[in-house]
Amino acid sequence: MKTAHLRFYEELNDFLPDIKKKIRFEHKFSGKPSVKDMIESLGIPHGEVDLILVNSNSVDFSYLVNDGDDISVYPVFESLDIKNLQHLREKPLRNPKFILDVHLGTLAKYMRMLGFDTLYKNNYSDEELIEISFVEKRTILTKDIGILKNKKVTHGYFVRDSNPEKQIEEVIVRFNLKGEVKTFSRCLECNSILKLIKKEKIIDRLPLKVRTNQNEFYTCSLCDKIYWPGSHYKNMNILIEKILLGS
User: Fold this and answer.
1) What is the Cα–Cα distance from 38 to 6, expressed in whole angstroms?
2) What are the DSSP calls for 49-116, one per residue?
3) CATH of the domain at 42
4) What are phi and psi for residue 109, nearest 5 degrees?
5) What pTM did the predictor assign?
6) What's the domain range around 109?
7) Is position 87 within any domain?
8) Inside any domain, residue 9
9) Which of 52, 121, 131, 185 has its CA 20 to 30 A from that of 241?
């Protein structure tokens, strides 16, 4: 048997048992596995890894691990500059776009409410999710670690919390999105950008009370849903303030 020493940093420790968290530990292995296979065998999805140092040198996922190697593994760096090292993804996240798995429907609405480009359907198969992410260069947010281990996934994140309000705070912090918030700019139902529309163009579609009390309206060009700042708007603003304060 051969021995490598590994150390995982920051949130990558979420996937490790307690005895291996935040320490350098020995790992016994046979043959000559790639560093990607070794990392994933320990439960870390490669989509959450952006930098690997072996004996202080940056390597890619194809590196074959040797007996005695000292391996340090770091998570994705969305707000730090490591351009002089070997990124394991084509490029860092800019102008972020997301696609969410079936377990994150409420999170998807919160993200759209804050203006983030967010695809979601409650019937996406894993294959559809991965293919759309690959073609459209979208970051997958998921509660399924197995999805992030697929070799086609380049941008992905395992959402730790189960509470949707905590989830959106988690995502904002993880991807450094606080400065990207554009509240009420997207349709909560289909993700399209909302556009201001004159009241007279839609007046026949409005409830009588709304016709009387509201003068500002927005519409979705894709699903044709109409939005206005009613009582729900105040409640959503309270929620947004709470989310942004927590992040």
Assistant:
1) 10
2) EEEEEETTEEE-TTPBP-TT-EEEEEE--SSS--TTS--SSSS---S-EEEE-TT-HHHHHHHHHTT-
3) 3.10.20.30
4) -65, -40
5) 0.76
6) 97-180
7) no
8) yes
9) 121
